[in-house]
Amino acid sequence: MTRKAPLAAAVVLGLAAVAGTYLWLRPEKAEGNRGRDDCVQIELSASTEKGDLLAELAKRYNTAGRVFDGRCAGVSVHKRTSGAAMESLVDGWNPDADGAPAPQVWAPSSSLWLGLARERATAQDRAAPLDDTPDADVPSIAQSPLTIGMPRPMAEALGWPGKPLGWSDVLALANDPRGWGAYGHPEWGRFTLGKDNPHLSTSGLAATAAAFYAASGKSSDLTPADLARPQVRDFVRGVEASVVHYADDAVKFLGNMAEADAQGRATSYVSAIAMQEQLLYLYNSGAPDGDPGQIGKGRRPSVPLVAVHPKDGTLMMDHPYVVLAAASAEQRAAAADFLDFLRRPEQQQRFADLGFRDYQGRAGSALATAIGLSADQPALSLIDPPAPNVLSRMLAGWDDLRKKARVLLVMDVSGSMRESAGGGRSRLDAAKDAAIAGLRRLHPDDEVSLWQFSTEDAGGPQPYVELVPFGPMRDVQGRLTTAIQGLHPEGGTALYTTVRAAQRGMVERYDPGRINAIVVLTDGKNEYPRDNDLTALLSDVNADTLERSVRVFAIAFGDKSDLKTLSAIARSSRAAAYDARNPAAIEDVFISVLSNF
Question: Which of 60, 118, 512, 556 yields a CA-CA distance of 20 to 30 A from 169?
Fold first, then answer.
């Protein structure tokens, strides 16, 4: 049954962009109740878009002088993407690997992850990290629906706001060989979609579920048999074919969109982005990088995004507050008191200030104004969350139906990679392990190649060499592993020459049916006098000037890496740079990078 929710709104979110999958928010010194021996201590793992806000509210709580059952509580918050936190909770939380103490409370973006956690724990014959509370009874601390964010001129060309739009319209436009020319705008090219990886991102998970529902024509009770229907699979495959690349966090798309908008090319990057509603508010309020401190201070886009709530159904992110099975009785009591605190009007106003609807799904007028909603638009058409076993099958099906990739992995083997990464491993050893583990996540049909580079003679006239030519992962995985294991460090860092050559080679052998991308990992700055022209390199890889754009995803590895330059290269190609200057984060970062494919 289709359920309706009010279409009012509120004010912006605080989604802090993370280079890897976690950021620890514990204060350096205990504040208020935090750390006091006479107070019950609880650790809370929050999804990234509300981690900063919950840390702020925890500080407020710790100094509020609240008492429950004659006791006080101290709350500490860390943030991690919902999918990564779910995996860690099921596998057994490791404070060293996961970057924070084991939580007693989990606040993911959606209850979808709760069912998946139970499903995976059962499949792995592990104890479920959650108690037996039905998902429908788990309390919410805020809400925000999935929306399709579109540059206003593009939405208007499709008939927005008067015409209801949905996933079926996305599919029709994606399949039309005329692209935007069918709506009088051939200069906009083909329809393209930015979408998160559903294994890590709630927006990606919800968008995948919504597409399956739209394909089936249902709004509830989706079955495994529905997922297997050829017309359903073809529909979802068609939507995925329009994806420019995937991401672990929609903030990466918004950063690139803001960059294009600043250059007067807002319609040149992507046609639409699947995201939570409050993220769209964040973008339009001048904070595309997820920093809530920039709301009203940062540059507002010349071309704002508007919210298209799909007519064929969307999911409400209910932001559940889950007390985990490992929590003691006193920690449960403390968690209940913090929940009560979060749901009081003063704290709910802070959620509203950051673009969330309240815990009952009600939103205020500020959000409506910011994202282009009007009072006469129809109420949201909400679909019921799929059953956990159906959701698991959706994810498995998505792996087959998603747009496949053609990825060139370029690894720095300069002499500085001999330096220690901790744990008895060199930087190169750590990078090898992360690359081998990360590549296992790719699909057998993804095509991969491997280069190495330094400044030494690589067996030819250039400081780079191809070690493994392109081939499907099913055919080249063994060769990739062997070649990566055989890497050894020497020389300096010929970064610019290598990136330029890699990009030119990829453009020459561009495959329009795949995500064409380069992943470059380096621990240093450019050290190649024969090519030290960054301006020319940025021009060469500029996605806005190329008919066939190849995205360059860069990993800054180690404390001497040049994250600023790598970020400029990535932005110019409309991709993203990742911060692994702490070598301990390299495995998480590699997973984040490969989630783009």
Answer: 512
